[in-house]
Amino acid sequence: MSDTNSSNAVYIRPVRQTDSPVLNRICLLTGNAGQSAEHLHTFGELIGLVYAEPYAHLPATFGFVMVDPTKGDEVVGYILGAYDTRTYEQHALDEWFPRVRAKYTYPPETNEGATEADKRYINILYNPSHAPQAAVDYSPAHLHIDILPEYQRQGWGRKLIARAVEHLRDERGLTNLWLGLDPKNEGAKRFYERLGFKELQGAPAGTMGLNFADF
User: Fold this and answer.
1) What would the 3-class secondary structure string for 14-57 be?
2) Is the dihedral of CA 15, 208, 46, 145 positive or negative?
3) Quick check: pTM over 0.90?
4) Residue ranges of the chain with pLDDT lower than 70?
5) Whole-angstrom Cα distance, residue 117 to residue 114?
6) Which of the 8 DSSP states describes residue 67?
7) Distance in angstroms (rounded) separating the CA atoms of residues 170 and 79
8) For 177, phi and psi rounded to 5 degrees?
9) Dist CA 182 CA 60 (whole Å)
C-alpha cells in the first residue's frame, strides 16, 4: 500500500520518524485499556516514551500507521514493533532511555506532582525491563498496537496486524510474533484469540504469540 491515497478513506503507510509526537499522543489516549490515560498522568508523555516513540527511531524496528485524509492526514493509529527484540532492547538501553530520562529525576518520587502511573514509567526509564526469554525463544519479533477510540471496532486492528505479518514474513523471513497485554483486559485477549494468537507457555500472563499460519 502506498503512502498516498486518492480517496478520503483511512489508509495505512510505513511509520516515519516525524510521526514521533503523534505516536506519543496516541499512546496516552489509548493507554488505559484502549481508552485515555490522561487522567492518570501529570507527565503525559511518559507512556509513549516507553511504548511508542522509540520504534520510530531505533534500529531493528518496524511500524505502520493509520492515516485519516479527512483530518489533514492525521495519524490515528499504529502498529509498532521490533523484528529483533534483543537488538532493539540494547539500542534502547544505550541510546534512547539515557536521553529521554534526562528531564526526570530518580528516584521517581522526587519528581514534583508525579502520579503513581508517572512514577512507574519513570522507573522504567531508569530501569528498563527485558522481554521474557520464553517469548523471545518463540519469536525475535514483538509488537504494540494502539488505535484511537473512534477508529476502534472497525477492522483496523486486523488490518494493521496483517500488514505487520506481511512485513515480518516477506521481508524478515519470520514465521511468528508475540505481544504482551494486561491479563485483566479480557476484551483485548478475546480479540487476539480470534486472530489466532495463543497464550505462550512459560511466559508471564498476558504474553500471546501468533504463528502466521494461524492468521
Assistant:
1) ECCHHHHHHHHHHHHHCCECCECCHHHCCCCCHHHHHHCHHHHC
2) positive
3) yes
4) 1-6
5) 8
6) E
7) 17
8) -150, 170
9) 25
Across the chain, mean pLDDT equals 95
Q: Which of the 8 DSSP states describes residue 209?
A: E
Q: Quick one: pLDDT at residue 6?
A: 55
What is the dihedral angle through the alpha carbons of 177, 210, 159, 68, rounded to the nearest 10 degrees?
-50
| Cα separation, 162 vs 145, whole angstroms | 12
Cell 496483517, residue?
162
Cβ count near 156 (within 10 Å): 19
Q: With H, G, I as helix, E, B as strand and everything else as coil, classify residue 199.
A: strand
pLDDT in the model for residue 2: 46
Q: CA 111, CA 14: separation in Å to the nearest integer?
A: 36
Q: Give the cell for residue 164.
A: 505487520
State the Cα–Cα distance between residues 53 and 21, nearest whole angstrom: 8
Sign of CA dihedral 122, 118, 54, 182: positive
Pick the closest to residue 181 from 166, 200, 155 (CA basis).
200
The pLDDT, as a whole number, for residue 5 is: 54
**Cis before 107? omega within 30:** yes
Output Rg (C-alpha) for the chain, integer angstroms. 17
